[in-house]
Amino acid sequence: MKKLALYYEKLENEVVQCKICPRMCKIYPNKIGNCGTRKNEGGKLYSLIYGSLSSIAIDPIEKKPLYNFYPGSNAFSISSVGCSLHCKHCQNFSISQTNVENTKRFLKEKTPDNVVEMAASNNCTSIAYTYNEPLIWFEFILDTIKLAKKAKIKNILVTNGYINLDPLEELINAGVDAANVDIKAFTDEFYQKVCLTPKGGLTRVLDATEYMHKKGVFVECTNLIIPGYNDNLDEIKNLAKWIRNSMDFDVPLHFSAYRPMYKLNAPHTPYETIINACKIAYEEIGLHYVYAGNVSTDEYENTYCPKCKKIIIKRVGYSLNLNNLTQKNTCSNCGTKINIEGNIKTGRREFSFF
Fold it and tell me: How far is residue 184's CA from residue 186's CA, in Å, rounded to a whole number?
């Protein structure tokens, strides 16, 4: 579905410049921007994916992953196609590294009203804009966020964080409640060589992440560790320090294990690498909430009290059990405030795809 785009500038000779992400693509007539979703038609920029959904699902919010935001709830998850990055290891490359023309027969056309109604009728606490990069889907998620806010449904961005601050601010003001930002690595070299960004890609992601936190968005961060690419322990330590110093001890950090995918054929991430990264962030740097992803570990699946270390939420897969947590989200053992937003739901959940 096509719609006139926001955040672009008209230049000479019907050239336009998109201002959603830091690439600032100059797009010539009848050409499409780097993300594969924004086209110059007659000197005007159009989004080609407004209302075009590649996936619709009900997910556990922990799958996003968000562990401290409405734990145990369901997220109505939607995606489109395209991305502002071109990561060689992309886990969802079939929808992110393609365009509308190649996928249009698979896309479902929905309005923002449709999405909010489906989320509400399926008793989902939130809508997650996920799977591919939601920030290039700007016009559609902006309209959906506004309607969801009126319906008292939370809005979640699962994002690479590669966006300019002006459009990001509009999304936040419209009603973004939470975000998981995938910080690919803590070196700009990785962003240039593996994600194919111009210079300064890491800085732009960090700026956007910090900006969301400053504006009151509930931020959690994820780092997918790839052997030989971003598994240097000093780099991992610097990422944890940045979260602590630029945002807060309370911002959750997830370390996930890599498996070979798309154009990258590095070996699987060793279990020990994930555990060592978690120990550095939790024990050495002092982050309060550190989690391991794509591996099975008792220690780094749970949420602990930052002060007395009692288990607050015990996790086994997507099942949750509460321990030592009061109704005011404080530790019942020592009274420490636990950085959990929203009510916690326990018990069995039903998940489905549409």
Answer: 7
On the question of a cis peptide bond just before residue 65, with omega within 30 degrees of 0, the verdict is yes
Residue pLDDT, tens place only, 321-335:
999 999 899 999 999
pTM of this prediction?
Answer: 0.96
DSSP 331: B
**Strands 311-316 and 303-304, how do they pair?**
antiparallel
Please report, for the chain, the start and end positions of each structural domain, with discontinuous segments joined by +: 3-47, 56-297
Q: C-alpha distances in angstroms, 348 versus 123, 315, 345, 351?
A: 14, 13, 9, 10
**Burial of 44 per CB tally in 10 Å (0-12, 13-18, 19+):** middle
CATH 2.60.40.1530 assigned to domain 56-297? The reply is: no
Other CB atoms within a 10 A radius of the CB of residue 241 amount to: 17
User: By C-alpha distance, which of 10, 120, 8, 128 is closest to 60?
Assistant: 128
Which helix or strand (DSSP H or E) is residue 268 part of? none
98, with CB counted inside 10 A (0-12, 13-18, 19+), is middle
| pLDDT for the residue 317 | 85
Beta carbons within 8 Å of 232's beta carbon, 6+ residues apart? none
Q: What is the predicted pLDDT for the residue at 74?
A: 96
| C-alpha torsion 287→289→290→294, nearest 10 | -160
